[in-house]
Amino acid sequence: MNLWRVERLRLFRTGRWIALASVFLLLGFAEPLVTRYIGQLLGGATGSTYIHVTVTEPHAADAMAAYFGNITTLGTLVTVVVAGLAFSVRSNPPLAALYLTHVPSRIALLVPRLATMAVAATVAAALGGVAAAYETTLLLGAPAAGVTATGVLISCLGAVFAVTITFLASAFLRGQVAAIAVALGAMFVAVPSSSLIPGIRHIGPAAFTALPTALQTGAWNSNDTWATTLTTLLAAACVAGGLWRSTRWQL
Fold it and tell me: Tens digit of pLDDT per residue, the chain (251 long)?
């Protein structure tokens, strides 16, 4: 049995695909619903004749923005955890010894894991985006097709970016918990902090991860192109760095 098939079976038989797909789909169906009925929900929550909550009429763009905003956090969290479980080859010493002594090269061992996880994250993000667009259409009218498609595509790239960050962390750290913690720190601390650096504030990874939400109220510009390009290059560097580090693993 080749390693590509092994990784596909591992993804499905461990139930990791359920964790990925369920979070994106749940947010995709729930966020438009919450956006549509937020006024009634808040009004019922106050339960007072002296407190009045005024909520502007929601639009399709509001629902899609809410979805994209939430997958940037919850979707990224689940993606990193699932990817960390898949990439931590050395966390189980007996199994690691079996892999590292029977597979011809580290690259041959890791590339199927990386590709399988990247495809799984992409499919989950795409399904979530389609679910959000469908639910939004039912409740608030059809969102702008071009903006929505671009946002879903960027969210898929963002999921792959989180996978590559986790891959790099797992290549340097032996334990699953440590690798996942470092990857989460990178995604939720280091990436947002790049928005504080004047030179890359509008063209760095923080601007890229915010793109799906920002595009709901603004047009694509040259800064967005730079943010996408630089983040893609950073993801490629993470893959290259992880593969390079893996060639220096010791049993």
Answer: 588 888 888 888 888 899 899 999 999 999 999 888 776 766 555 555 555 555 577 888 889 999 999 999 999 999 999 999 988 887 777 777 777 777 778 888 889 999 999 999 999 999 999 999 999 999 888 999 999 999 999 999 999 999 999 999 999 998 889 999 999 999 999 999 988 888 888 898 999 999 999 988 888 999 999 999 999 999 999 999 999 998 887 76
Burial class (CB in 10 A: 0-12, 13-18, 19+), 54: exposed
Domain residue ranges in the chain: 3-246
User: Which among 49, 55, 18, 15 is positioned nearest to 34, based on CA atoms?
Assistant: 55
DSSP class of 215: T
Measure the CA–CA gap between 151 and 173, rounded to whole angstroms: 33
